[in-house]
Design brief:
The structure holds two protein chains of two kinds. Chain A contains 18 helices and six strands. Chain A is mainly alpha-helical. By secondary structure, chain B is mainly beta. Among the domains of chain B are: about 80 residues, Sandwich (Immunoglobulin-like), CATH 2.60.40; about 150 residues, Ferric Hydroxamate Uptake Protein, Chain A, domain 1 (Beta Complex). The chains are: A mainly alpha, B mainly beta. The interface between A and B is large, with 116 and 113 residues.
Chain lengths: ~450, ~1100
């Protein structure tokens, strides 16, 4: 009896002695053992670089290239997108979130680290990637939150900046990036964690010029574009691109076509008709494979290009034709170099290229180039490049008939989440994807 | 030495039985001498019993070990009479005191039912066993008011969601705390795949053998559960398991049951039109090799077979014919218009009904129990083997449970139980994935045979793969090998395995010094290991290169209580009891995932065959400590007042970088009052008992998840449409700031509830009504509030939510007939609860819970919990001042009258998504009836759920493919204008036919509109019906029963799917989705139980 009492008293004492505080604090029990609260810039960089590649080849490419009839949505959700009616705001949640949450916010965090530690070259490429991302985004969304964005709960309703001011910020980022890359790198050099260029600073600088050239085209600063394009890539090996490793981490089209969405999107009859009319049979055979694992171009280890040498060649050709009726030798050279690079990208050699350009309808000779010819070839060469949508909106080449209704959409809807959660967003009824052209397109 | 004496005592108990028997007779009357007809007479500690006849006389055979008789009668207090050597026992039963029944309340404290100021409802173990359900949660349906249970899937061992008084938490767990023998027990549903795909998920309470349950007490309101702290805020299901009795005898029970399961119903598919579509203006059959997904072709009756590859209508794809020129996709040949082929009319294949089989389950359980004043024990074991209605689905469960207690000293009891369960499942994929069983099955056109001419029985087996595979092992599907997995391929090549090993139990020490002082220590543990493997053989549409996914969950939960308690009379009129204690809880869950892709060769489904392996770990852990106290005072057995308080500390509120104990603590009080007003009234025959209950309680809670106070970096998953990209990518790892922003400033949320109840019993308890009204409000609710992603994040943990709730519960008990040989007992349970989301976060009007883009469940401001939100038709008042921007606006549907548009003449699409459905039922009624005639018992339970919307995603998708009967009907209608108005407000006069162009537009499957397939998910269902016979005691047997019962045999509903009782997302908060879920099942169960 007494020993029982003693036992109970002891138990009681133990309970009292257990420090509640140490139990609840529990040696950091409320910190996540599997996810760090901070990571070095080298661990962060590959994640958002691959995210940039994936959204470029994902939503941006699929929606943009469907709208310009390079591909056609034929089944399930994609059949209603193809008719434009399915392009409701919620369909753009993914792209919008990728831009802000998965890319721009990551760049912001990485930049803070790079600035604090004097990693100058890192700062440079962060600026270039930010410029790339906001250019791509504002080209489909026009005005967007920018200066007021990425403040977390300190600014839960970010205000909108005009596209013109975003473009101005974008040029500034590129100039700053070029300056940073031209200077010393600082205590940490760029290395293999840079999955685009493996730390090659010259290639990054070339990419910055390419992005300026791309933007100047839309701003109708053709002289500026020509001079930037000259400073951009020397050849296709300098393209800003990411090569997906293999089937286990495959490119966005392969994942789309093979895992779950097979048969939802196919090659577009409009583009097929265009290529057939130009006797472009070799490139057509590559593009028009069945959209599944056997597709010759949309392979698992896809090279996802963000901005390319061939795009620059077509910019040189276009600016030349715009400056000189019929174009000069330089413009003609660029035109053919662009076509040749396109053939190479599709795995086609000189024989196929030579046969193709031997047609006078394709190569009418120096002085006979037209905007129509240049933009048609660029449309083909930019197959499944999201920028092709901007080119089409800029020039209206090739002429396309709306799939449904009277107008092909000229922009994207804002994200449904943006309408819901940002009090400073416009009302969704005020935004029309058919009539509200983006700033440079007005 | 002591141990040896225990063993000896046990042996004595075991063998201390003789086999003689005697007859005892007597008479049962009330206090006035009136005979009581049909009073129950039971030999204590056995199931031997009888009832008194019309004169109140009885006669009973008492087995030798019978030492006492127990007399009971509805409305009267039961009475126990020691037999001694007497053979004649007359008793006088007294009225009204039945209400002194003790009920188990929070922390296992037994209290007089009449003293409670809150609602508690008890369900007997017998009712659980009789239900025939193999899981305790399923067995509870309809048996208590305030309880809502929804089975999620017809897969074997599919889980069920249980709610008490609706939802309590906005984004956290809403299922009640399960307490077995005083300690918390895990009833989780752990998901290893997305919530809208994967295999059916179980809820872990199914690891408890229902035959081990003595009783279940449902504690509903916050006042009833306040002592459990935060965890009890969602209600508590208190399960008391069976123990041995100190009757100095051994009871052996053997129960065996056989169940037969079949699917209840199937969605209405058309069998008129073939695979194909309009080509060149003609309805054309298209060969599977074209990849054609839809059944928009010609009438099957207009087609016949042909085999000649040179036939002008022969299909032309490379894989249409084999090297010998034989058509590959149908042994009969390809299809051509009637009159141009071989004259053999095209078959109409039923790819659905023959696929399913009759599921069987066999359960055997054995228990041995006994004891004396020193020691009691009960050992039980059970074995369940079930095969599903889907071939190759299996569920095996083995349980062993030992419960025992020792009273070595006066006042000291040491008791404990240990339960070991092994649950193994084999299940197939369901829901929104291309390997989901019904997804491919229901989309298959009626002109295509998934069995390739084998018939379902042979196609099921792995012996003949020709149903679903060609010689090169490429898949044979109706879309030419693409699209969705062939159902027969799935059940042989894409199975999910789940092996759960679990042990749980408790050790309890109770020591009573005297009435005023007692101690209790209860240590509970619950250890679960759950190992899973999901196969996707090479060629799976989900993972064409093959994939093996391994997941391992280890959950460790410890729950310890230490209490001091006592009670006694302060004066003649005032008595008091108190309880004070401390509760220490810890939860530790670790998950390991291994994902192997790119299998090297087929036929070897093991992770070693994968060419690319990634893995990840995930830990979820928290601790809490609570100090609590409760005092109850009563006056003259008439007025009872209870006050309780608890101070909790919850690690989930702690900020690891700046820990302060006070940040994690919160205090909450409760008070309740019971006023037994019938004590103050003259005893009339009409009202025998009347009590008014009032209670008020506040409950605090920390965040639903740990680690919410910090922002972290995660190894990201990049996804949009096709399969996701996981890091490391090609050997490069990466980290990304989580989209969920942590918040170091979180404070506890607070729920306040008020409850008022009335308990009335009439005619000596023959009729009883228990009514409860409650309302509650949760403030500062912690939720992952949505942010515009332009802020850099999509969600942030915030104390920003507010939700109100109210409800009514009614329980009506009646014994309309009680005669000598016949009695009818009936119980009606009525439940109505409503939770309205009042606030989410500043400027935020909805918050995603689960589901899809077209229709998902959200918290929507001003709407009931978990509203279905999605695409809607454009209405006239959209965008006007009357438009809330959230709900469907008023006015007629606007018709698209742009003649250039492909959707000309169809309903126009509202650019804003809207709240298009409310999945919460208006009310639930369970009507339970038991009829006893002599040794026969007949019972039935009707389960009525009124309202509650479901988004019928299955019908939505099938409309796109032209597979539903609806599409067969509408495509044959003559052109008619759709009801609505044109953009100028005039009535629509644009005639349209709702054919393929309609159902593949925004208005049909995969379009922007979700509204058209939101349907009323209410039902009336015969949940249980049973007939059983109770064996009388014999020389060698104490009794037993044989019964047959049916579960879910019949239901009626307006819902157009298979069964509205389904939930794609399983037991989670996002309810109201049906998307190719497994069909529900109905069961017939034969059960034999013998007592020795």
């Amino acid at each position: 009896m007494k020993s029982i009492n003693k036992f109970i008293v002891t138990c009681l004492a133990v309970f009292m002695l257990v420090s509640c505080e140490s139990y609840i604090e529990g040696d950091g029990i409320n910190s996540d053992p599997n996810n760090p609260t901070s990571v070095p810039i080298s661990a962060q960089l590959p994640a958002f670089q691959i995210q940039i590649a994936d959204m470029t080849g994902g939503d941006f490419c699929r929606f943009n290239c469907m709208l310009i009839q390079q591909v056609e949505g034929v089944a399930r959700q994609w059949s209603s997108f193809n008719q434009y009616t399915g392009l409701t705001p919620n369909r753009f949640d993914g792209g919008w979130q990728d831009v802000y949450e998965n890319v721009l916010n990551e760049i912001k965090i990485a930049r803070a680290d790079a600035v604090a530690n004097g990693y100058n070259h890192h700062q440079g490429i962060l600026n270039i990637m930010e410029a790339y991302t906001i250019q791509m985004a504002t080209d489909v969304w026009d005005d967007m939150p920018y200066t007021d964005a990425l403040q977390g709960i300190d600014a839960i309703n970010p205000t909108y900046d005009t596209q013109a001011s975003i473009y101005a910020a974008m040029y500034a980022l590129l100039d700053e990036g070029l300056a940073q890359l031209a200077g010393p790198g600082g205590p940490l050099s760029l290395g293999s964690e840079d999955v685009f260029y493996g730390g090659n600073v010259d290639n990054w600088s070339a990419a910055a010029h390419a992005l300026k050239a791309r933007a100047f085209m839309k701003d109708k600063n053709y002289a500026g574009a020509a001079s930037e394009a000259q400073m951009a890539f020397g050849d296709a090996s300098q393209n800003m691109a990411f090569k997906y490793p293999d089937v286990n981490a495959a490119g966005p089209w392969f994942r789309f076509n093979v895992s779950g969405r097979e048969g939802d999107i196919e090659f577009h009859p409009t583009m097929r008709g265009l290529l057939e009319s130009l006797n472009d049979t070799d490139r057509l055979a590559v593009m028009d494979g069945t959209f599944n694992a056997s597709h010759p171009y949309l392979v698992a280890d896809f090279l996802q290009e963000m901005v390319t040498f061939r795009e620059m060649q077509f910019i040189l050709a276009e600016t030349d034709v715009r400056a000189n009726a019929g174009g000069t030798q330089a413009g003609h050279d660029a035109y053919l170099a662009g076509i040749r690079a396109s053939f190479a990208r599709f795995g086609l050699g000189d024989a196929e290229y030579d046969a193709y350009v031997a047609q006078p309808e394709i190569d009418p000779g120096v002085g006979n180039l037209t905007l129509e010819l240049v933009m048609t070839q660029k449309y083909i060469a930019m197959y499944l490049q999201q920028e092709a949508y901007s080119d089409w909106r800029r020039t209206g080449i090739p002429a396309l008939e709306p799939v449904s209704g009277t107008t092909i959409p000229v922009r994207w809807n804002y994200s449904a989440n943006e309408y819901l959660f940002n009090a400073n967003s416009p009302d969704e009824t005020e935004v029309s994807i058919y009539t509200d052209k983006v700033g440079w397109n007005r | 030495m002591k141990r040896l004496s225990l063993v000896i005592t046990m042996m004595l108990v075991l063998f201390g039985m003789t086999m003689a028997q005697r007859t005892v007779t007597g008479n049962v009357t009330d206090a006035t001498g009136e005979a009581l007809i049909g009073a129950s007479v039971l030999v204590k500690g056995t199931s031997v019993g009888t009832v008194s006849d019309i004169d109140g006389n009885y006669s009973i055979e008492v087995p030798a070990e019978g030492t006492a008789l127990v007399f009971s009668y509805t409305g009267y207090s039961s009475q126990e009479v020691d037999l001694g050597s007497s053979t004649i026992v007359d008793v006088v039963l007294r009225e009204g005191v039945l209400l002194e029944t003790a009920v188990v309340t929070a922390l296992g404290v037994k209290r007089e039912e009449k003293s409670l100021g809150y609602a508690v409802q008890k369900v007997d173990g017998g009712d659980i066993a009789r239900s025939g359900a193999s899981s305790a949660v399923d067995a509870l349906v309809g048996k208590a008011s305030g309880v809502q249970i929804t089975r999620s899937s017809g897969s074997v061992g599919g889980g069920s969601r249980i709610l008490i008084r609706g939802v309590t938490s906005m984004v956290g767990n809403n299922q009640p705390l399960i307490v077995i023998d005083g300690v918390r027990t895990n009833n989780q549903t752990l998901l290893s795949q997305g919530s809208t795909a994967g295999t059916a998920a179980s809820n872990r309470l199914m690891d408890l053998n229902p035959d081990d349950i003595e009783s279940i007490n449902v504690l509903k309101g916050a006042a009833a559960t306040a002592l459990y702290g935060t965890a009890g805020a969602t209600g508590v299901v208190l399960i008391t398991t069976k123990k041995g009795s100190s009757s100095e005898q051994i009871d052996v029970n053997f129960t065996s049951s056989v169940g037969v399961d079949n699917i209840t119903n199937m969605i209405d598919l058309q069998s008129e039109f073939a695979q194909g579509r309009t080509v060149g203006g003609e309805l054309t059959w298209r060969s599977p090799a074209t990849g054609e997904s839809g059944s928009w072709g010609p009438k099957i009756s207009d087609l016949e077979y042909a085999t000649d590859p040179n036939h002008p209508n022969a299909p032309t794809r490379a894989n249409d014919f084999d090297a010998n020129g034989v058509y590959r996709w149908d042994p009969n040949g390809f299809l051509v218009p009637r009159g141009t082929g071989n004259g053999q009319p095209a078959n109409v294949y039923n790819n659905v009904d023959p696929f399913f089989q009759t599921g069987m389950n066999f359960t055997n359980s054995l228990s041995i129990a006994g004891g004396n004043d020193l020691l009691t024990f009960r050992l039980s074991g059970s074995d369940l083997r079930a095969s599903g209605v889907v071939p190759n689905e299996e569920y095996d469960r083995k349980t062993v449970k030992l419960a025992s207690s020792i009273r070595p000293l006066e006042g000291l009891t040491i008791s404990g139980s240990v339960n070991f369960t092994k649950s193994d499942y084999v299940r197939v994929q369901q829901g929104s994935n291309v390997s989901g069983l019904l997804l491919g099955m229901l989309r298959t056109p009626a002109s295509f045979d998934n069995t390739n001419g084998l018939g379902a029985d042979r196609a099921n087996s792995t012996d003949d793969r020709s149903a679903y595979e060609f010689a090169d092992r490429s898949q044979r599907t109706y879309r030419g090998g693409g699209g969705y997995d062939n159902p027969y391929w799935i059940i042989n090549n894409a199975l999910g395995y789940e092996d759960v090993s679990r042990t749980f139990g408790n050790v309890k020490v109770d020591y009573t010094v005297n009435n005023w002082l007692g101690f209790g220590l209860n240590i509970g543990y619950d250890l679960t290991s759950d190992e899973r493997k999901q196969d996707f053989e090479i060629g799976s549409r989900t993972a064409p290169l093959g994939r093996i996914r391994l997941a391992e969950f280890n959950v460790k939960q410890y729950d310890t209580y230490f209490n001091i308690l006592g009670s006694g009379n302060l004066t003649e009129d005032i008595s008091l009891n108190y309880l004070a204690g401390v509760n220490v809880f810890s939860y530790d869950e670790n998950r390991t995932f291994v994902d192997g892709t790119g299998l090297t060769f087929p036929g070897f489904l093991d992770i070693s065959n994968a060419s690319n392996i990634t893995s990840s770990q995930d830990a979820n852990r928290n601790r809490s400590m609570g100090f609590f106290g409760q005092v109850e005072a009563s006056w003259k057995g008439t007025l009872y007042a209870t006050l309780s308080a608890r101070q909790d500390y919850d690690s989930r509120l702690g900020n690891p970088s700046n820990f302060r104990l006070e940040d994690t603590g919160f205090f909450y009080p409760s008070a309740s009052l019971a006023f037994v007003f019938s004590e103050l009234m003259d005893n009339t025959n009409i009202l025998s008992f009347g009590k008014l209950r009032l209670s008020w309680a506040q409950v605090g809670a920390g965040p639903p998840n740990p680690y919410s106070t910090q922002s972290v970096f995660v190894s990201p998953t990049i996804s949009s449409w096709g399969s996701a990209l996981n890091f490391p990518v090609g050997g490069v790892s990466g980290f990304d700031q989580s989209s969920l922003l942590g918040n170091p400033n979180l404070t506890p949320e607070l729920t306040t509830t008020t409850e008022i109840g009335l308990d009335l019993r009439f005619l000596n308890g023959r009729l009883g009504l228990d009514a409860t009204y409650y309302n509650g409000k949760v403030e500062d609710a912690i939720l992952n509030a949505s942010l515009a992603s332009a802020t850099g994040y999509t969600n942030v943990w915030l104390n920003s939510g507010e939700m109100t709730s109210q409800g009514i519960e009614l329980t009506l008990n009646a014994t309309p007939i009680q005669a000598k040989d016949f009695a009818w007992n009936t119980q009606i349970n009525f439940t109505k609860s409503e939770n309205i989301v009042q606030e989410l976060a500043p400027g935020v009007e909805r918050l995603f819970l689960a589901g899809f883009n077209t229709a998902g469940t959200y918290l929507v401001k001003g709407n009931q919990y978990g509203a279905i939100f999605g695409g809607a038709y454009l209405r006239e008042e959209a965008g006007t001042a009357a438009d809330t921007d959230l709900n469907i606006p008023g006015g007629q549907v606007v018709i698209n009258d742009d003649p250039n548009d492909n959707e000309y003449g169809f309903e126009a699409v509202d650019p804003k998504a809207r709240a298009i459905g409310n999945p919460n039922p208006d009310f639930i009624v369970g009507w339970n009836n038991t009829f006893n005639y002599k040794n026969f018992t007949f019972n039935f339970l009707l389960d009525w759920r009124e309202g509650g919307d479901l988004w019928n995603g299955t019908a939505w998708a099938l409309s796109f493919f032209g597979r539903s009967q609806l599409t067969a009907d509408t495509r044959q209608e003559s052109p008619t204008p759709i009801q609505g108005v044109k953009s100028d407000g005039t009535p629509n006069d644009i005639p349209v036919v709702r054919d393929r162009s309609y159902w593949t537009s925004s208005l049909g499957g995969f379009g922007a509109i979700g509204e058209q397939f939101v349907q009323d998910g209410g039902w009336i269902r015969l949940r249980e019906v049973g007939l059983s016979y109770r064996f009388p005691a014999t020389d060698w047997m104490k009794g037993g029963s044989f019964g047959v019962s049916g579960r879910n045999l019949w239901f009626t509903t307006d819902y157009d799917g298979i069964d509205p009782e389904t939930s794609l997302t399983g037991t989670g908060n996002g309810q109201g989705f049906d998307y190719f879920n497994m069909p529900s099942t109905k069961s017939l169960i034969f059960r034999l139980s013998l007592d020795f």
